[in-house]
Every structure is written in structure tokens, then in C-alpha cells.
Amino acid sequence: MVYASAIPVKAYLNAGNLDVAFQEEVGRLVIAAQYFGALRLAALGSKPGTRRIFLMPLGGGVFNNRAELIVGALATALELLALELGREVFARLDIRLLAFRGSAGEQERMSKLLAALVPASSSSTAAASKTPSVPSWPAAPPAAPPAALPAAPPAAAPDAAPAAAPAAPLESTEGFVRPVAPASVPSASFAPAAEPAAAADAAARPWQLKGRSTSLLDALLDDD
């Protein structure tokens, strides 16, 4: 048996206080913590099989906490238990509500409030007992299939390489091949003009002006 103390008291004189909503929220959290502690202790018990747990409406009666607040705290405790231990934990717990001095009216009111938050239980044990059981927490809904990832945008075509400058036209001059300078570029930048002495010297060396590979000896023999 677990005894829970330090139940928050909602004083009658505070009923019209502007802080009543804050006081009720603190009270709900304290009650939820005590319900959760009792449920967790029972769920982690070492004994196998189903365990039956009886819960009183903590904070009711002379403590003057509203029934809706108490039931909301119990629902919060059940959800916290499912988050920590998994929803399958309720398969081995038989949770039942009690009322102060067996008040049938209080028991019925608490059961209806809780049924509005948690779906009804299909436990045969609960149907055979006069003590109302806490509805089992619903199973987790099936996970939605993951959304398809958006298709990657087509890769941008690489920047085209700059067009190569057109090759300069070639010009043949008595066996020599040299590029022709563009009109905008002076021809002197490609081949400086031959001086008269150089031209005369070139005429004396005919093997350098022929368009085939010619040795010096062959050129001399041809001249002879």
C-alpha cells in the first residue's frame, strides 16, 4: 500500500481570488505526481501477472479540489506512465477507482469524467466487479508513412567553356608557313620585316627555303 500525503488544499476563502487558476494548476500537478508515483511503483513490481491498483480521488472532499481537476490529474499520470514504460504496461495493470466511504454518487461522477478522457476498457475483470475500473489508455496510432522527399532539382548545366578564338589563317611563303596577322593587329607583331641584308643572305641559302627536308650537301649538289 502506498500512502500519499501533502494533498493540496483549495481554501474556501480563495474561491474568488484572481489567483485561483494558478492554485488549481499547481494542485493538479501535485495530484498527478502522486498518482504517477503509485502507478509507476506498481508497474515496476517484480511479481509477474496482472496487478490490481485502487485509487482514491486525491484532493476531493474537504480538500475542495474540483472533480474535473482530479480526473484530469489522473489522466495526466496515465499518459506519463505510457510515455515512460510504453502503452503495453496497461496490459498488466488493473486500475480501479474508489470513493470516500463508498459514495456511489462520487464514484459514478468520477467514472464518467474519466471515460470522457480515456476510452472504455474491455476487461472482463472490470465487468465482473462492482468497483469501476479505470479505462485502459488507447494504443498508439500507427505511424504515418514518411513523406516522400521532394525530387532534387535537375543539376544546372555547367557553364559553357568560352569559345576558343578562331585560329589565324595560314600563309605559305616559298616553303615557310606562318600565321597571317588579323587586320586589327599589325603584321609586325607576328613576323618582323626582313632587312635587305637578311633577304640577300636567305637567297644564298636555298636549302632553307624549300618545303622539304634538305641537307646542306644535297643543296650544294643540286646547284652544281
Automatic annotation (TrEMBL):
Query: Which superkingdom does the taxonomy of this entry point to?
Result: Eukaryota
Query: What are the start and end residues of every segment in region (Disordered)?
Result: 128-167
Compositionally biased tracts (Low complexity): 157-167
- UniProt biased composition (Pro residues): 138-156
Protein's name in the database: Uncharacterized protein
Q: Which organism is it from?
A: Effrenium voratum
